[in-house]
Write a structure and sequence with these properties.
By secondary structure, the protein is an alpha+beta fold. The protein contains seven helices and ten strands. Strands 5-4-3-7-6 form a five-stranded antiparallel sheet. It has a three-stranded antiparallel sheet with strand order 8-9-10, with helices on one face. Strand 1 and strand 2 form a beta hairpin. The chain starts with a helix and ends with a helix.
């Protein structure tokens, strides 16, 4: 059901974008075809941006800029190819220049941001409305494949260029997946309390002003996340 609703979101989004594109001189079916070209960029943004790690701010910003530039260039090329293909298919064979707005990076960035952000918040709302049992998580640690149920994971710690997954039974697993990616994988069952810590909501045994307890382990709560944590456990 959730998957069907997500597909419906993207279908409606393309329809709305297509209505806008009809004002540029495209026929409706042409506008629909052209509108679907926003999907690769929006999906790429949704996939890649959660993987950007800002622990090293300069590196994070540089990686974000590379992703933005890559997506915008790819989208503009898609629109150029799509436009000339549409013009080629027209019966009158009348070639017209591509509308300038479709090669405007600001316009493209706005549409992609709206689509990707809308998808994020829509899926987050669906997760809250219809929570489902999370699937086991499989990752690599020390060249070995590890599979854990979400309830087995207590918290994830970002440590230099790697992360450490702490699990029940005193187990810990070091891996190279950034904590931002872990956050995307484990939502909504985990809460971010610090740029270096992601905690299983059900594993929390107590909360002070700036300390969160997982059993006997004390984890710091940063000022950025303090209000969210206090609101959840007050």
């Amino acid at each position: 059901m959730k998957r069907l609703l997500v597909i419906s979101y993207w279908a409606v989004s393309v329809l709305l974008v297509s209505i806008v594109l009809t004002s540029l001189g495209y026929r409706f079916l042409e506008a629909m075809f052209c509108g679907t070209m926003f999907l690769p960029g929006a999906l790429a943004a949704k996939y890649f941006f959660p993987k950007v790690e800002f622990k090293n701010r300069r590196t994070g910003i540089k990686n974000a800029i590379f992703i933005v530039c890559g997506i915008l260039v790819a989208e503009m090329l898609l629109f150029l190819v799509t436009h000339f293909y549409i013009m080629h298919l027209r019966e009158e064979q009348m070639m017209t220049d591509i509308p300038q707005i479709l090669t405007n990076p600001i316009f493209i960035a706005i549409i992609l941001t709206v689509l990707a952000a809308g998808s994020y918040f829509f899926e987050r709302w669906l997760d809250q409305l219809h929570p489902t049992a999370p699937a086991p998580i499989t990752f690599t640690s020390g060249r070995k494949s590890v599979t854990l149920r979400v309830e087995e994971i207590l918290y994830v710690e970002s440590n230099d260029d790697a992360t450490v997954v702490y699990a029940t039974g005193g187990r810990s697993f070091r891996n190279i997946t950034p904590i931002s990616r872990w956050e995307a994988i484990l939502k909504p069952h985990f809460i971010r309390i610090h740029r270096s810590y992601l905690v299983n909501k059900d594993a929390v045994s107590g909360v002070d002003v700036d300390i969160l307890y997982v059993g006997d382990t004390q984890l710091p709560i940063s000022r950025k996340y303090r209000e969210t944590v206090q609101g959840l456990y007050s």
